[in-house]
Amino acid sequence: MLEGSRLLLPGLWLLASVSCLLGDAAGYRRKVTLQSIPGSNSSSANLLHVRAVGRNNTLHYVWSSIGAPTVLLLYTRSESSALRVNWTKLLSASPAGAIWVEPPGSVVYSTAVVFTKVFEYNGANVSALSKGQEEPFYPPYDLAGFSWQSVNHTVNQTALTAKFQGVDTSDPGGAFHNGTISFQVTAYEQGGRDGPLPRLLHTANSSKVEFIMDNVAPRGNSSRFMLEVVTVEEKGGHKRLQSVRSIDDEYTPTIFEMAQLVSEPRNDSIGPSFFQWKTTAYGSREASRENAIRCRYHPLQTANWTLPGPSIAHAYFGEGLGRSHHIAAINISFGGEDGEVYAEKGYLSWSALLGFGTPPKDAFSPLVMAIVVVALGTPVVLLLAGSLVVLFARRKRHSQYEPIN
Ligand SMILES: *[C@@H]1O[C@H](CO)[C@@H](O)[C@H](O)[C@H]1NC(C)=O
Ligand SMILES: *[C@@H]1O[C@H](CO)[C@@H](O)[C@H](O)[C@H]1NC(C)=O
Ligand SMILES: *[C@@H]1O[C@H](CO)[C@@H](O)[C@H](O)[C@H]1NC(C)=O
Ligand SMILES: *[C@@H]1O[C@H](CO)[C@@H](O)[C@H](O)[C@H]1NC(C)=O
Ligand SMILES: *[C@@H]1O[C@H](CO)[C@@H](O)[C@H](O)[C@H]1NC(C)=O
Ligand SMILES: *[C@@H]1O[C@H](CO)[C@@H](O)[C@H](O)[C@H]1NC(C)=O
Ligand SMILES: *[C@@H]1O[C@H](CO)[C@@H](O)[C@H](O)[C@H]1NC(C)=O
Ligand SMILES: *[C@@H]1O[C@H](CO)[C@@H](O)[C@H](O)[C@H]1NC(C)=O
Ligand SMILES: *[C@@H]1O[C@H](CO)[C@@H](O)[C@H](O)[C@H]1NC(C)=O
Ligand SMILES: *[C@@H]1O[C@H](CO)[C@@H](O)[C@H](O)[C@H]1NC(C)=O
Ligand SMILES: *[C@@H]1O[C@H](CO)[C@@H](O)[C@H](O)[C@H]1NC(C)=O
Ligand SMILES: *[C@@H]1O[C@H](CO)[C@@H](O)[C@H](O)[C@H]1NC(C)=O
């Protein structure tokens, strides 16, 4: 029996690993370039263009810190579609139409994600909250009013990363005296899994954004932070909030939930668009289980939500953004009763994946599969072995008694 399980475990492992490798190798590949588009002397007017070329299609991710930090996701049916910008118009009071793609008919799906505000509130007294008292909010940080460093020098063509780093210039309380808020962008050429926690699984049709608060001085002893995210969807489509739970937390210890905003499935090969995150943030540059910060999401707001301007979403979708598009907004808060993790190191990092297609989903890892099979298989093997032993013993006894008869 022991021999059996000793062989069973590596065997299963091998089988599962091989099937995983095959799945990865068969993945879609894209040729990705990151480029900061120059055009303005103001460093805050950053425009980062991620171009991901696939077979007969190109994904354009346009990231910008003009107004609220925004990313446009454009799916085009052409390997040579090009992004065009009219900077004069973009920085003017009416930016509608300042960003477009040529040839005009190549865009088959466009959507956007906007990071509008960071809220701070006192989160210590949970009992007071449950008594219906309002969470004591400090004045929010409006990300549209931030001043952002030039993204150009942060572009890393090898790692396919770039970083938007900003401070609140009005900053009456001096919270940004030594602190920054950043959005770190990572593009991918093919499917895989991130090394650092939360070890998100990605596809070639997605990109990652990491929201980082570094050294922003909290305004109270028990401050918690909350990020407001707004999504823009074409007319007719709308985003829904889903929770995906798993019994396997091997890749992200203690976190069993993935949350995602997914648009309606489409009738073509593109699939829906999504915005996905694990319900955890981390309170240190070296993310680990010990500095995990539980993150909660609040109900998705869809009724009559308007997107405050300016942003490149207004520049791309045009003036009628509110009427012709479906806008949804959600608050994601970091930390609860789990102590003052942010206060310890003054650091918070939270990652989300965005892109096209069915959102990636963790399958059971080879390890968990092997454990399950062994756990279920062992009693069966024991039972079989037991029956054989009993059978054999009976026979033996039978043959021993025979001469007496
Ligand atoms: C940008 O700066 C350059 C030199 O630093 C100057 O020649 C140019 O006129 C400036 N452009 C704008 C739009 O301010
Ligand atoms: C790409 O498009 C061309 C012409 O439309 C078509 O012949 C070809 O089969 C397409 N290739 C793929 C991989 O879809
Ligand atoms: C850019 O926009 C400005 C203002 O709307 C317009 O006057 C100008 O002709 C545009 N430039 C191009 C190249 O389209
Ligand atoms: C929490 O709130 C309750 C009710 O408002 C109050 O009685 C209690 O003193 C508060 N506790 C702390 C630690 O502030
Ligand atoms: C952007 O960075 C590249 C390479 O680091 C450099 O060659 C280029 O001059 C920079 N452009 C601006 C506008 O700073
Ligand atoms: C770009 O990223 C690679 C891989 O992470 C790293 O080795 C390299 O030092 C980075 N380059 C710059 C200029 O930061
Ligand atoms: C600013 O932050 C750095 C670490 O990021 C720290 O070493 C330094 O002491 C801080 N300065 C002030 C004035 O808080
Ligand atoms: C924060 O904590 C310090 C020391 O524990 C205390 O002196 C101070 O009054 C507290 N501030 C607030 C706003 O509760
Ligand atoms: C797919 O949807 C588009 C609009 O989203 C519609 O114009 C087209 O007719 C649909 N095609 C099919 C086969 O249903
Ligand atoms: C949305 O706005 C319309 C028109 O302004 C109004 O009739 C409707 O009651 C609003 N809905 C909600 C949920 O506020
Ligand atoms: C997020 O929370 C803040 C503070 O409670 C509120 O003003 C804002 O409307 C909320 N946004 C969403 C999308 O729920
Ligand atoms: C990525 O997009 C391409 C082109 O639409 C599609 O063929 C492929 O299946 C997609 N891959 C995933 C994992 O969604």
Offer a quick outline of the entry:
By secondary structure, the protein is an alpha+beta fold. It has helices spanning about 1-25, 85-90, 125-130, 310-315, 320-325, 340-345, 365-400; strands at about 30-35, 45-55, 55-65, 70-75, 80-85, 100, 105-120, 140, 145-150, 160-170, 180-185, 190-195, 200, 205-215, 225-235, 240-245, 255-265, 275-280, 280, 290-295, 325-335, 345-355. Helix content is about 20%, strand content about 35%.
Question: What would you note in describing this structure?
Answer:
One of its GO terms (cellular component) is nucleus. The chain has seven helices and 22 strands. By secondary structure, the chain is of the alpha+beta class. 36% of the residues are buried. The strands form four sheets. Strands 1, 2, 3, 4, 7, 8, 15, 19, 20 and 21 form a ten-stranded antiparallel beta sheet that branches. It has an eight-stranded antiparallel beta sheet with strand order 9-10-11-14-22-18-17-16. It has a two-stranded antiparallel ribbon with strand order 5-6. It has helices at 2-25, 87-90, 126-130, 312-317, 321-324, 341-345, 366-401, and strands spanning 31-36, 47-54, 57-64, 70-76, 82-85, 99-102, 107-122, 141-142, 146-148, 161-168, 180-187, 192-193, 201-202, 206-214, 223-234, 239-245, 257-263, 273-278, 280-282, 292-297, 325-334, 347-356. A hairpin with a 5-residue loop joins strand 3 (57-64) and strand 4. The protein starts with a helix and ends with a helix. One 2-acetamido-2-deoxy-beta-D-glucopyranose (NAG) binds next to loops.
